[in-house]
Amino acid sequence: MEAPSTNPPNSLTQSPLLLLNNMSNLMSTKLDSTNYMVWKLQISAILDAYSMIDHIDGSIPQPREFLISEASVQTVNPAFLTWKKRDKAFLTLLYSTLSSPVIAMVVRKSTSQEVWNTLEERIYIYC
């Protein structure tokens, strides 16, 4: 019988829902107006461990939504669809770690990076 692997999960081979469940189970803190530094330490470590911090910090830019061929035909960019699916998983993770008053601060944000940056700007200065 083969021993179970002790390697960290590969974010490229796991389904987004399984990955999200694994990551959210690791968070013990919900962000409120007083604990930004602790929350950011926890979530950054989780995202870094799953090789996903680059999506939220902007290292991986959002791809163009559409591609235009040489014949001027517009098609949906598959890279954008992959990026969008990943981003929605990150948004779900972020929302699950926020208190209700903090979620109210990011209601109109549409990407995980926008939420991340808003939290940095609006909460960090008060901690």
What does this structure look like?
The longest helix is centred in the last third of the chain and has 19 residues, at 78-96. Strands 1-2 form a two-stranded antiparallel sheet. The protein has one domain (26-126). Helix 1 runs parallel beside helix 4 (78-96) and helix 4 (78-96) packs across helix 6 (112-122). It is mainly alpha-helical and 127 residues long. The protein is 51% helix and 5% strand. The chain is elongated and about 55 Å long. Strand 1 (66-68) and strand 2 form a beta hairpin. Residues 1-13 have low confidence and may be disordered. The protein has 6 helices and 2 strands.
Q: What structural keywords apply?
A:
single chain; 127 residues; mainly alpha; two-stranded antiparallel sheet; 51% helix; disordered N terminus; Retrotransposon Copia-like N-terminal domain-containing protein; Copia-like_N
Lay out the secondary structure.
Blueprint: H1 16-26, H2 36-49, H3 53-56, E1 66-68, E2 74-76, H4 78-96, H5 100-105, H6 112-122
Antiparallel strand pairs: 1-2
Helix pairs in contact: 1-4, 4-6
